[in-house]
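Problem 12. The chain below contains 249 residues. Write out its predicted structure in token notation.
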Amino acid sequence: MPGTLYLIPNTLGPTDAAPGALNALLPTQVQALTSKLDYFVAENAKTARAFLKLIAIDHPLAKPLQEIEIAELNVNTPPAALAQLLAPLLAGRDAGLVSEAGVPAVADPGADLVRLAHQHGIAVRPLVGPSSLLLAVMASGLNGQSFAFNGYLPTDAAQRSKRIAELEKRSRTERQTQLLIETPYRNGAMLEALAAGCQAGTLICVATDLSLPTESVRTLTAAKWKAALAANKGPDFHKKPTVFLLLGQ
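Solution.
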């Protein structure tokens, strides 16, 4: 009988290595289940080991950390390698899928492994934990009844401006909140493009370092963001994970 593929949420950023520190982010049941696994698939093995060290503070691991198997699945993993990642599960072994941050398989290459698991009749169990996208929608004040995640926009300025105009039109027509992310060191350029490219009344939310002590969520119209940036009163989000949201009015 195949094992179960557990989708294990990670933290959204640095977390204190102290007893109970994870409890505000992950249910104790999730931590306890994670500690019992000895096979993981992760975007980055080093990050996954750091996460397991946090788990081990309150929940002893099934094996010494160096004996726990961690296979990598990232954007460089060829599709042909997915079957090998599933082989232990088909042999009856449970596994945990862990993302770099937040929930796996959402804006994450793990979705391909989950789809293949379903094709092979492997049980998939999503576990509760922080999602930056849902936290951003919750805190933005924008439409939480209808929203879409668009990932990264083009880096070319002209193509990015065109895409922003498309998303704004769709948002205004369908009353749908549009979410996007950017490489953290380009956050400033993204906000400038949104403020300049959107109509004055379009609402733009900038949600940074969600669930962390440095968390910041701010929603303003495009016109007010443009004025804030001109006055050097933009958000403190350089090199910090940020979710951008917009809702056309």
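Discussion. The two ends are 53 Å apart (CA to CA). Students who got a different answer should revisit the alignment rule from Section 12.3.
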